[in-house]
């Protein structure tokens, strides 16, 4: 794993959260994107070399809607950038981690993504991210 790519934060209202983070950070978000397969709208802020991803559910079946219902708004996941997501999945499986989606899927911000189950990572949802043009 290379670095923390972003922190994912579950929010009920992305417009309201954008205003809050714009006030907090002193600058505006640089991108908003819908990820239909996950049932979310995302908004990205750049913070130094890292990013903050705000996530609002677009339907009640979205993992974000379920997360907020269970735990409330807040940090949802930590994402790490990787050079080769398939090799990293194989390495982590050998280490005993539970992979939620072994086949990478398209995520926000032009990434391939795979998630690790929080039960195998000390209660933290981990996302692996690889640039889609680095196949």
UniProtKB/TrEMBL annotation:
VOC domain segment(s): 3-131
Biological process annotations from GO: L-methylmalonyl-CoA metabolic process
Protein name: Methylmalonyl-CoA epimerase
Protein keywords: Isomerase, Metal-binding
Membrane-spanning intervals of the chain: none
Keyword Metal-binding: yes
GO molecular function: metal ion binding; methylmalonyl-CoA epimerase activity
Domain of life: Bacteria
Name of the encoding gene: mce
Entries under PROSITE patterns matching the protein: VOC
Keyword Isomerase: yes
NCBIfam families reported for this sequence: metmalonyl_epim
Organism listed in the record: Halomarinibacterium sedimenti
EC id: 5.1.99.1
Primary enzyme class: isomerase
């Amino acid at each position: 794993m290379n670095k923390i790519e972003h922190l994912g934060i579950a929010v009920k209202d992305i417009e309201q959260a954008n205003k809050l983070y714009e006030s907090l950070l002193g600058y505006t978000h640089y991108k908003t994107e819908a990820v239909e397969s996950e049932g979310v709208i995302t908004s990205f802020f750049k913070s130094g070399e890292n990013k903050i991803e705000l996530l609002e559910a677009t339907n009640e079946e979205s993992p974000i809607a379920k997360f907020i219902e269970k735990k409330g708004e807040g940090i949802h996941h930590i994402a790490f950038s990787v050079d080769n997501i398939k090799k990293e999945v194989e390495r982590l499986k050998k280490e005993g981690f539970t992979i939620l989606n072994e086949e990478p899927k398209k995520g926000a911000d032009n990434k391939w993504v795979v998630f690790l189950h929080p039960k195998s990572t000390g209660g933290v949802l981990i996302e692996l991210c690889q640039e889609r043009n680095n196949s």
